[in-house]
Amino acid sequence: MIMGTVPVTNPLTKSFIFTIIKLMELTKQQWKRVADIFADIGKLVILVLVLGQIVAPEGFDLKKFIGGVIFSVILFSFSVIIDKGE
């Protein structure tokens, strides 16, 4: 490293993410709330993108339906991972 230069860190690196999480230092109850929020957002995605396709007057859009299912599964997975990580 050249003298006087500042090391550049990629904000997408794993160490940066873990540093942010460590700075947060949430309690178990706060982590439980974060997990619940992910689960609630997953429920809303199912309601809007999955069930909304069934009752939509414009017709059924398979891409939105599949995208909603995939996104809700991802959100529920985050919820379970956070909840078990306590």
Poorly predicted spans: none
Let me know the largest β-sheet.
none
Report Rg: 19 Å
Count of DSSP E strands? Answer: 0
Q: Residue-averaged pLDDT, rounded?
A: 79
Pattern of helices and strands: HHH
Q: What percent of residues are in strands? A: under 5%
Number of helical segments?
Answer: 3
| Basic shape | elongated
Compute the separation of the termini in Å.
39 Å
Percent in helix = over 70%
Global structural class: mainly alpha
What does this protein structure show overall?
- The protein has a domain at 26-84.
- It has three helices and no strands.
- The chain has helices spanning 14-24, 28-55, 62-84.
- Helix 2 packs antiparallel against helix 3 (62-84).
- The longest helix has 28 residues, at 28-55.
- The protein is elongated.
Q: What's the short version?
A:
By secondary structure, the protein is an all-alpha fold. It is 72% helix and 0% strand.
Write the layout of secondary structure elements.
Blueprint lengths: L13 H11 L3 H28 L6 H23 L2
Helix pairs in contact: 2-3
Features:
mainly alpha; 86 residues; single chain
